[in-house]
TrEMBL record:
Glycoprotein found in the keyword field: no
Similarity comment text for this entry: Belongs to the class-III pyridoxal-phosphate-dependent aminotransferase family.
One term of GO molecular function: glutamate-1-semialdehyde 2,1-aminomutase activity
SUPFAM superfamilies with a match to the protein in the record: PLP-dependent transferases
Species annotation: Candidatus Acidianus copahuensis
Keywords: Isomerase, Pyridoxal phosphate
InterPro entries named among the record's database cross-references: Aminotrans_3 (IPR005814), PyrdxlP-dep_Trfase (IPR015424), PyrdxlP-dep_Trfase_major (IPR015421), PyrdxlP-dep_Trfase_small (IPR015422)
Cofactor: pyridoxal 5'-phosphate
PANTHER family for the chain: GLUTAMATE-1-SEMIALDEHYDE 2,1-AMINOMUTASE, GLUTAMATE-1-SEMIALDEHYDE 2,1-AMINOMUTASE 1, CHLOROPLASTIC-RELATED
Transmembrane segments: none
Pfam families linked to this entry: Aminotran_3
Lineage: Archaea, Thermoproteota, Thermoprotei, Sulfolobales, Sulfolobaceae
Name of the featured protein: Glutamate-1-semialdehyde aminotransferase
Signal sequence bounds: none
Amino acid sequence: MSSSRQQPSSFYEERLGNSAQITYPVLIRSGKGSRVVDVEGKEYIDFNMVQGDIIAGFGNSEIVDSLGLASSVRRREVEELIRNIYGLKEVKISHSDPIKRLVEALTLGRKKILSFEGHFHRHFFRNVVYATWNDIDSFKRLSEGVAVVILEPVPMNMGIVPPDHDFLREVVETSKEKGITVIFDETKTSTKTYGGALRSLGIKPDMVIFGPSLANGMSLYAVGGDHDILKVINFKVDKFPAVMAKAVLTNVVTEENINKSIELNRDLTKAYEELILDYGINANISSWGISSSLFFGSRPRNYRDFLKVSASKFRLYAEMMLERGIIPSSDYDGEWTVSVAHSREDISIHIEVAKEVLKLLKKRLS
């Protein structure tokens, strides 16, 4: 057995510097629904959900039962489901991330790739230039000679930092004028709203990539759009993620279920906003669909703003939440997720724990 998670108050006070880390990770033994149990037998309500990929909850019976039908599911069935939900002309699924192969095919002439600071970057790319998120002048200045733009339509790797009004529209329009292919990376936003950010924002890129939440965390990706390359390219697909994706998209990620989770997240977010105001804590919340991020500092508009938020205060908050049986987001650059498996009771418990933790945090920071 490892050391107890209960620590003296000095344990927290010593961790207010910039290098503060959560010292004792939670080692999960099992999970069911929204609950997980660690190796010491302690139960938690999980709001991290493997960084939001476990949209159906752990051990979902419909998904588990579907595994016996793996041999009967065809990839075109899954692709058709994705096409209909996200309103896409063409869809191809893959058991691994397809972005490297796509970008290699799209950069045969012009070599430069453009992304944005703070977005999910795949480090095997060379010749990447980084513009400032929510700064259209930065994008226009750096987009000369670029072949491909890869971006998260709603970034979730510096917390949630939604696009400013019309920013994405200007990015897509400018790219079209310059002959640049635009790829929306919805690896993290695939199921945060019904139809993803693609449907919520109403902005159409050349291609969009969806991630493992389509298969409740199993390794399955999808790429869709109306780019000509999708007519000729194919990827390998494993049967088990494909059959899980069919079960998730048919029975779990329904518009009704996602909207229920969005409503629960609104209630949780509102409670945090009220607590922050009541206790006079310098913190802010940013939301998108079924997920929200807690920032100790000002709400960021871009990565440079995000670098100013307090990692140490978040980690102190997170450690106290963990001690009381709530797993919040993975870290200060993440977000919590209210999955289809979370209940009204889960939200109520989270709020009560947050009341206690934020009150203690205020005292210790005073």
